[in-house]
Amino acid sequence: MSEDYKPKRISPLRFLARVAIKFLMIEGHYLRRKLLLQYVVHGPEERLSIGHDADPNDTIFNTMSGRIQVGNYTIFGHGCQILTGTHAPESFMAERKQHPTSGRDITIGDGVWVGSNAIVLGGVKIADHCVIAASSVVRRDCAEAGIYAGSPAVMIRPLAAPRTEAPN
Prior knowledge:
alpha/beta, 5-stranded mixed β-sheet, 14 strands
């Protein structure tokens, strides 16, 4: 080591930031589940049903205008929005703030993969095992297993039915 070497002083704020990062790394699973990847419900929570082993990540579920049912083993990428709510575009001012309270239910089947930043609008049913591409906007039913992409989302190609028996 040369004699001119002087260790850098670290500011107290930077020190606290490094300690916090270490803490997040050690306690990462708990914090990631509870703080960083917590989904949000806008509207009555009892209108949201999430199936067994589904992974909603940080999805926003808007239940203001209907129920949302998410199937088993369904996964969501980051930043997804599942929106039952709507407003009347023909109305103005305070009237535009009104919204329907029912009739725009969303059903997402078992084993669906919804890519990051995808938006699913009210009144839609997504069949089991569908894949919704990132940043897609689902405005109509996805009636059969397939890969759907675009705005509005359309089927790119169908997917084969999943195996029901274990491989040998």
